[in-house]
Design brief:
heterodimer, A: 257 residues, alpha+beta, Fumarate Reductase Iron-sulfur Protein, Chain B, domain 2, two-stranded antiparallel ribbon, 8 helices, 7 strands, B: 260 residues, 3 helical TM bundles of succinate and fumarate reductases, 60% helix
Amino acid sequence: MSNTLNLTLQVWRQPSTNAAGTFETYQAHNISDDASFLEMLDIVNERLIEDGKIPIEFPHDCREGICGTCGVMINGRAHGHEKGTATCQLHMRKFNDGDTIVIEPWRAAAFPVVRDLVVDRSPLDRIIEVGGFITAPTGTAQDANQQPIPKEVADSAMDAAACIGCGACVAACPNSAAQLFTSAKVWHLNSLPQGQAERYKRAESMVETMEEFFGSCTNHGECSEACPKEISLDFIAYMNKDYIKSKVKNRRMSSQI
Amino acid sequence: MASPTLVKKSSDAPLRAKGKELPFPLNLYQTAVGKKWVMALTGIMLLGFVVFHMVGNLKLYIGQVEHLNAEGEYKLDYDINIYGEYLRELLVPLLPRTYALWGLRFGLIGAFALHIHSALTLTRMNQVSNVAYSSKRDFIAANFASRTMRVSGIIVFFYLIFHLADLTWGWTSDEWVRGHVYENMVNSMSRPIVALVYIFANILLSIHIFHGAWSMFQSLGINNPKYNALRRGFAAGLAGLILLGNISFPLAILSGVVDI
């Protein structure tokens, strides 16, 4: 049986980047506890539209936890209080009737608010552009399993590749550091044979581009707790190691073991 | 999405431009990851000092021992005073007297300067990068120690200056005599206010170490799932050991367990 909830929402409303924003209070009555958090916002928006008001702008796309588009601060936690869950996968059954829910956009100097709960996360793309790829200007794709890769290595690379780039790590970090995102993207490729050719160049340029936009890591660990994919802090240590090595290593000898 | 008339501030403009790269090893100190690496390395040096300092102070509990002095006669002397003199004699005759000690001191002063400078610049970087939330944050992993590193660090720094003035330079007492480590410590910490300062500052130092001694592994890239669980234990154990050792001195002197 599904139950319904009556909620009080405090939602950040901001008409544009340079306009002043403020919290507005909305009553959300008769919300099915089967609804996802975003569906709850859809229902609230439909009612706002019926009343002739401007609906709440919020980021969303796939709604199945894999695209990384959605993400808001819910009661002071990135993606809400459910561990390893993106906002779209957070269900209203995790809330209680009569709850007040405070919804705020991600906050970071590099993430300006576009409107309401939508922020511009393009600095994360700037980091990917300088190293989140391998250069393989060859013909067709290789056969699978042509390069033997230990299972543990493939697992580690997959754990890193699970990052959906939602920016919750930056939002949760008291320093607005993007270390968890960047390290996941670095380690996804640096742990695999295919990524070795550009390993140290990648670590160096991705870290340095990251630092043009974001703060520095003080190892609080908030990022990993907020991450909907539960990316490990271990990758940050691996990235730090590769970054320091990038400054010392003689890359002319990097094909030699 | 956004309305077409929206004046969007480009987030593509970096908060800080990448400067010209300096030659190795100065280039390491130009970036935040490099600065954290330096902070961790200097932290290890300072931790080493704190541990040896505490071990040296434990000689307070040995009290007096028979000791062959410079005149070639056996006399009773406080063990910690003998140790203090030994530090000045370190590496004699390879180096002249106090040279090795001053070498260590200069190393520590350099480590302190880099540790503090990196903390200052990284704090400024983080302040620029961060925008405060308008609603209340609910922290999950960040603990009291990690969130108060700056405060505990600053207080420990001012305590350090007081400690030097109190027991190295002897500015806080007329009874202070150079080389009489035992007597100076007992005289100083018999004053309850001073003893309290020592206890309070060492609690903060331990809190600082509780986060720092774990965090340094991450900053240095020392991470292996096989022993990662031990890193927290190491930091907690080290912080606890330093806390117990260091606050035992003012407590022992205040309670009269250690007396002249």
